[in-house]
Amino acid sequence: MAMKSITLITVLVVVLAATQAKAQRLPAIRLFNITGNVFCSVNGSIAVNGTGIIPPPFPNALVQLSCNGILRGLAITNRAGTFNIVVSPIQVSLNNLLSSCRLVVATPLSNCNVTLPSNGTLQAPIQLAGTTVIGLLINITQFVAGVFRLIGAQ
Ligand SMILES: *[C@@H]1O[C@H](CO)[C@@H](O)[C@H](O)[C@H]1NC(C)=O
Ligand SMILES: *[C@@H]1O[C@H](CO)[C@@H](O)[C@H](O)[C@H]1NC(C)=O
Ligand SMILES: *[C@@H]1O[C@H](CO)[C@@H](O)[C@H](O)[C@H]1NC(C)=O
Ligand SMILES: *[C@@H]1O[C@H](CO)[C@@H](O)[C@H](O)[C@H]1NC(C)=O
Ligand SMILES: *[C@@H]1O[C@H](CO)[C@@H](O)[C@H](O)[C@H]1NC(C)=O
Ligand SMILES: *[C@@H]1O[C@H](CO)[C@@H](O)[C@H](O)[C@H]1NC(C)=O
């Protein structure tokens, strides 16, 4: 019974908060969520390779969100080579993210495979992937990394 009341009160509070938020037209918190996979390859991508052969992942790689040369975010890839950078539109506008920002891997490619170049950086553009609205107050726009290609290796 007590449990039921608590649940009911919780529901009421949430509904009330939501109603108030709507009435006051509080702007939703906006976030940009950039995800991607880094591969142990000079040009790794799941999406682009028509051959169906996916190169191995690049774990523990430092991925930087670089916008006109300015560092806006950081992440380290997990064991599957996946990373996730969350930024606020206050830091980077949507247009900038798509036109002036790139994902740059600061860790040398040779770290995952010594036969690969130790100089140059893997770089990928950023692509819009859609919007996920969580509740009334949070608006998250999803972005994905394009193909990471090795730039500047000689
Ligand atoms: C960002 O996107 C990834 C992959 O879709 C997801 O796992 C993660 O929860 C998202 N983060 C936020 C804050 O939405
Ligand atoms: C990726 O690089 C390999 C080796 O340099 C090359 O054979 C292959 O065609 C490239 N694939 C793409 C999609 O660029
Ligand atoms: C595609 O597969 C080939 C092997 O056929 C591999 O050499 C290359 O790195 C892969 N490229 C991408 C973009 O995954
Ligand atoms: C390292 O790269 C070479 C050439 O790209 C490839 O033949 C080899 O299988 C790779 N080794 C590992 C452990 O992925
Ligand atoms: C880049 O690395 C290769 C070996 O992977 C080396 O032969 C070359 O001199 C290096 N280039 C520069 C500019 O450091
Ligand atoms: C979410 O934010 C985007 C821009 O970041 C905006 O275009 C869109 O209208 C917002 N959606 C909602 C439901 O607030």
UniProtKB/TrEMBL annotation:
Signal sequence segment: 1-23
Keywords: Signal
InterPro entries: Phylloplanin-like
PANTHER family for the chain: POLLEN OLE E 1 ALLERGEN AND EXTENSIN FAMILY PROTEIN, POLLEN OLE E 1 ALLERGEN AND EXTENSIN FAMILY PROTEIN-RELATED
Protein's recorded name: Phylloplanin
Lineage: Eukaryota, Viridiplantae, Streptophyta, Embryophyta, Tracheophyta
